[in-house]
Write a structure and sequence with these properties.
Blueprint: E1 5-11, H1 15-23, H2 28-31, E2 35-43, E3 49-58, E4 61-72, E5 76-84, E6 87-100, E7 103-114, H3 120-144
Antiparallel strand pairs: 1-7, 2-3, 3-4, 4-5, 5-6, 6-7
Length: 145
């Protein structure tokens, strides 16, 4: 993932629990403030989402887009952009590393490119805000229920 931004957080939960929350796309609007609507369009044979449509309002980035997902059990999920209105590239991943004693390190990597001119530094700052907000909301959702 070229020119991506990443950040990590430790969450007091097992990887399987964290990945089940990540995979429950329909619940995102209830706990992820930037996600306004979600629709799973298709799923893999194992039941996890393959293509998901989102309506997002993340401050600097507002869009209506579809992502394609690949899953590595409870270790990693990667996504790439299928189609969008404003975003022309959106690649990301959550990578989970079991730290033992019921703790998991979650790393979120994100690379975004938009159809309008944006200085690289501002783009990285927007990615950082999106990542940090997403990790904070995921941690709160899992640790506080």
């Amino acid at each position: 993932m070229a020119d991506s931004t990443s950040s990590s957080v430790t969450i007091a939960a097992e990887p399987a629990k964290i990945m089940s929350v990540i995979a429950d796309f329909e619940s995102y609007p209830t706990w992820a403030a930037a996600v306004k609507e979600v629709e799973v369009l298709s799923s893999h044979e194992d039941g996890r989402a393959d293509h998901v449509h989102f309506v997002l309002n993340a401050g600097a980035i507002k869009d209506d887009y579809t992502l394609s997902y690949t899953w590595d059990v409870n270790r990693e999920v990667r996504w790439t952009l299928v189609e969008a209105k404003v975003v022309k590239s959106l690649d990301g991943a959550y990578t989970l590393r079991d730290k033992g004693r019921g703790n998991t390190e979650v790393t979120y990597r994100l690379a975004v490119d938009v159809t309008f001119p944006m200085i690289g530094l501002i783009k990285r700052k927007a990615e950082k805000v999106i990542i940090d907000t997403a990790l904070k909301e995921l941690k709160k959702k899992i640790e506080q229920g």
